[in-house]
Structures are given as C-alpha cells and as structure tokens.
Amino acid sequence: MRYSGLGRIALTAAFLTSAAYPAIAGDWSGVYVGGGLSFRENTVAFPNGTDRVTIDDSTPPGIGHFEKVPDLEHKGNTIGGHVLAGYLFQKDRFVFGAEADYEFGPSFSVDRSPGIPTCANPPIVSPGNFSCIGLSTFFEDVKTLGHVRGVVGVELTPTVLAFAAGGLAIGKSPELIGASAGGFVADPPDSPLVGAATVTRRGLGETIYGYSIGGGLQVKVGHGFMLRGEYLYDKYKGQKIAVGGAGFGGTIGEVTINSFSSPGNRVDYSSHAVRLSAIYQFWGNDEPVEEPAYLAQSDWSGVYFGGGLSMNRHEVGFPDATNFLNMSNTDTGGSLSVTPSNEFEGDSTGGHLVAGYAHQFGRVVLGAEGDLEFGNSFSRERDPGGPECLTQPINFVELGVGHFECVGTKLFFSEVKTLGHARLTAGYEITPALLGFVAGGLAVGKSPDRYGASVFGAVAVPPNAPLVGAATVTRSGLSKTVYGYSIGGGLVLKASEHLRLRTEYLYDKYKSVDIAVGGAGFGGTLGNIQTNSFVSPGSKVDLSSHTVRLSVIYQF
C-alpha cells in the first residue's frame, strides 16, 4: 500500500490550474491548531532474523527435500487520530513554518499463535509420513507517537497552499518480541515426533526516533478555518534486541526435520500514512487582497471528471458456515470446545476515476455520477499446510495430561473486489466555496472465484499410534458480478475556478451470493481422547465494504 500517488495527482492538478491565474497575495502567516484522522500502514521487519524449515526423506528410491524460508516482514493497517499545532510565516508566495503533532489510536501487533503456527509445509511431504512444521515471529504494541517538522510551502492560489514537510518522527518500539516453532511428524511404525517451543522477551518498549518526510495541500474555507490532506513516510532507526530463538527438529524413521525461528538482533519500523486535518489559524488573514470571482460565485453546475485514492475495508461473512472443534477426555470427563469466527475483514488501497454532472437550484445541487474502482481487493488464501492450531499443543486444564493435540480449521477465498458505482447526488452549498453532499445508488463488485475449507490435526496419546490427517475442499469458477446499494457523503471544496477537492465516505452492501462448496472434517477416538472437527463455508456469502476516498476533480 502506497499513498504517495494522491499527493502527486493533487499537486500536479493544482499547479496546472493555478498557472492560468494572476499572482494574488494571500496571507498564511499565524499560529494554528488542529486535528483529524490518520490512516497508516505499518511495517515491522526483522532483517537479521532466522525463519527456516527443512525436511528430508531418505526413503528409497531417492531423497525427498522440502525447504521454506517464511517472510520476516509484517505489514498491517491502523486508523487513529492526531492533534497538531504550528506557526507559518509568508514571504511573497512562499510560506515557511514549523509544527508538532501527537498521534493517538491503536498500536500494531502480530499475536502469537495459540499452538503450533500455520504449517510451513504441506501436511504430507512424501508417502508414508505426516508432517506439519510451523514457525512464526510475533510482537506487541508498535505505534507512531508524533512528529516535529519544518514546513515549506508555495501559495498556488489565495486559498490553496502546497507544502512539503520534514523532520523528526517519534515512535514506540515493540513491548514484546518473540518466536515460536513447533511440529508433529508421524512416520509409522515409529512413535511420533512432537513438540513446540516459544521464546519471548518483554520490557523492550522504548521511545524510538527517525525521520519523517511528506507533503500535501492546505485549503482555506473561511473565518480562520482550513482543511488539509497530506502524505507522510516515517522511518525509524533500527532497534537492537536480544531475544533468542525457538527450534523444533529431529529424526524419525526416514524423515529428518530441522526448523528454527528467531527475530535476530534488530527490529526495523517504518510507516506510510495519509492524514486528513481540520485546522484553525489565529491572527491570520484569510481574506485575500483581491478575492477571485470563483470564491464569491455560486456555481456548482456542469460536467466534471477526476480521480484519486480509495482506502477500503472489506467485510466477508459466511452466515451459514459450520466451523467447530470439540474434544473430550472419556476418563476424566473433561472437554474442550472452540468455535472460530466466520466473519473476516481486510484492508486495501487503490484508486478510482469518477465522472458526472451536477446542476444547481438556489443553494441545492443535484446530480448523477459514475465511477470505476481499481486495485481494491481482499483475499484470504489457503495455507500451504494446515491452519493454525485452535488449541495449545498440550492442554493441561480442559483435557488433562498425557496427550498432545493440534487441530486447526480454516475458511478461505480468493479476491473480492469493488468495481464501481452509479449514484445520484444531492448537495447543499454551505458557502460559495464549500459544498456538503450525500450520495446513493448502485454498487458493483466481484465475488470470489474460489471458496474452500481446510482442516488438519494431530493427536498423540501414548502408547497408541497417533491420529493424524488433513483434508481440504475447494470449488473454483464461482466468480460473478454482484450488485448492491451504496450510500455515503462528504465535502467538496473549490480550490480554483475549475479545480475541486473532495473527501467522502461510502458504505457498500451487496446482495448475498449463493455458493455450494461442501466441507472438510477431522476426528476420531485415540485412547481416552475423542476429537470431532468440521469446517464448511455453507451455502451463502455476504459482502460489504467501508471506503474513504480522496478525489481531485476538474469541473467544466
């Protein structure tokens, strides 16, 4: 996900538009305060980490070999807020200043798996054995705290300022860092090789520093108030850590396993962000020396087109799904029941193109428009081996001692997409330069082409032979164009005679899609442990999305 494209579009359009107008001096000098929303993509990487699994099978006639090196870079999105304060000084059309801000909201974490992490290998490497080896690195509570930056800008029009900013970024490093490794290998008639290990270290959280660069547009809306849209990239100095690692391995029959996971000795943190701010400036003069005619005229009628950035949160739900794990100890009467969620969320960032027509009646503006979305998709792929364990590898509480179990279920699907909209709009002119609007109409999307369910498990109760297995069911060719309704609203700001800046929110809800996929199960009785698990997506899938869009629009 990269947010810099919107900045390039907005700045280019503003420069081209403002070039047609004479230089009219505005006044951007003064102290200001403000706040708003921050949409951030966080990246946490362990550049010196180790995360590797190798499996060799020497069963004649040859040697089977499997090797995988998982990715040690973790990405995730957060939505929070910020407050800011600063001072600007204007010299001719150039503006200079300094500002500081404080960020608040959720931190970014990648949690430890409850048992063995997701299998890094297919459940069966070669005939005659069953193996599931999982590795993961994890961490808690990484976040951006704030910035201290210098600002340099140029007045494009009396009401539009383009600026670049750079300076100090302040953040918080992970409070906890760790690594997990675990596995289960059965190669009859030998006893199974089982185990899991985790290493963690707490108390690592500290204030970290780095640099921040970015830029954006700031627009006057009158009476000291301004709106700002900007992009920031923050990069922090790598933090030295000492955590250690976790391993699982050994030889059973003809199969030799070697796996190890460690975060290494350094963690790097960086982020890309888009921020939307409302600002109030003290002691400034927001009335230009010569007010352009477009700021005084009520003129929102005409054909328009444009485009910009779309930030989506997709929601995929399986209301008729079956997804459970039940285990019991027939000797003690202890039992364990797990019911995973069948609703999933995922973020994506893409773009959109929009075109429409609006006509003004007094202070009311009515219109119609259509748009195309691109790059906005969400998928939940099948794991290479099996899902993460739903239980701890050794359950001492519910089921008692003397056994090992790792059972996982998972629903998965390919890409779900937003394709576009056809909407009617209704707006109200707040000022000649600011329009508030609502919009509603048709949402068009694409449902997943593939759905499936997978389950795997391993249960060992000595001296019995282990109960092991894995199953997956998939069905492809189910993609179709889906329709639903879209509602939303936002603000449109005149930045010049023809240039409009728009920010809006959309909610899209599609008609449920009928599917027929089937399901996968794992279970049986081993010694005193009974296991029953099953997962199926059911007969229906629900699709919806929340979207924030930033647009640059040219109106004829």
From TrEMBL:
Keywords: Signal
Domain of life: Bacteria
Leader sequence residues: 1-25
Keyword Metal-binding attached: no
Transmembrane segments: none
Family named by the database record: Belongs to the Omp25/RopB family.
Entry protein name: Opacity protein-like surface antigen
Organism expressing this protein natively: Mesorhizobium tianshanense
